[in-house]
């Protein structure tokens, strides 16, 4: 680690932001981390900051790209229907005991692009099913959680294929540090300011109480009905354990819950979707009664259709999010091949599970009430980008009147 291309000071600031802004870890709270083994320098730095903040116990689970590929190359066929359910049950128990959750992303986004799509889909499905008890606690926001990124070499190679290895990793590190707002003198203060701006946008949208959003642009004429009693969120928010945290670093979006039965029209993706090792490009889908009835893609169509067949809710929307085209991530021009970043470059929708917190008084609604108000449920939650500088968005009121929300990708 003597001459890592990743600036150790900025990496340490990212670790500090993850603990103080992302998690807002409380004294005595335990922390569960998952990370690629390449992110070891960031894990160590986060662990140090977590204990300084008074963490009780920090436990990290690592994954390794070589080990994942070894499974695809050598494992018996039935392996691809297996998942470590015992691990996820343990995670769920940890969250019940108020353990905070931190996920570090940094894997090669195209790691599995050369593998058998059917096996990838089976493994993902087995994993999603096994993960559900733990994922529900995160999706329901029971505890404070956070995702940050480490600029691993295998990821950097994919994002900057024309650069040398050192330059590529430096370039990805710079892009991550800028997007995560840690390349400034006081990152914690910068995040306070950013959170306040996102809170103002959410408050405006909550005041409007639109019944639908209407997206128009090249290849897109889509009406997204909003769930009854939906609530917009953005930036920091408060988990059920009372801790106010910033789940995503970076984040530029304000988002809410669409009505699972009230989405009509067609929509085209504006950026490729990197889904668990496969790149899905030029997605074009048509909705009827909230359900995707037609789906095409110029690349990765097979994977897309497998995703849509995961379960009934996989064909319906669980999130709609607004991001101005001028967001720092969009302006960087970098395609990160990672949803955490790319979704923050553009307005997006998500297939699958909704967030219960995106309802008024969401913390106290039962799953049946959420469903009755239009909230979708699924094993998956997959964001894909539908915004650009050519997309306009109107807010539609219950009486049919309209309010411009975005014009050419910017707040109207
Ligand atoms: Zn989103
Ligand atoms: Zn999402």
Please give a structural write-up.
This protein has helices spanning about 10-25, 40-50, 65-75, 85-95, 115-140, 155-160, 165-180, 185-210, 300-310, 330, 340, 365-370; strands spanning about 30-35, 60-65, 100-105, 145-150, 210-215, 220-225, 235, 235-240, 245, 255, 260-270, 275, 280, 285-290, 290-295, 315-320, 350, 380-385, 390-395, 400-405, 410. The mean pLDDT is about 95. About 50% of the residues are buried. The longest helix has 23 residues, at about 115-140. It has 2 domains: about 10-180, Thermophilic metalloprotease (M29) (Thermophilic metalloprotease-like), CATH 3.40.1830.10; about 210-230 and about 250-410, no CATH class. The termini are far apart. Helices cover about 35% and strands about 25% of the residues. Bound molecules: zinc ion (2 copies). One zinc ion binds near residues 381 and 383.
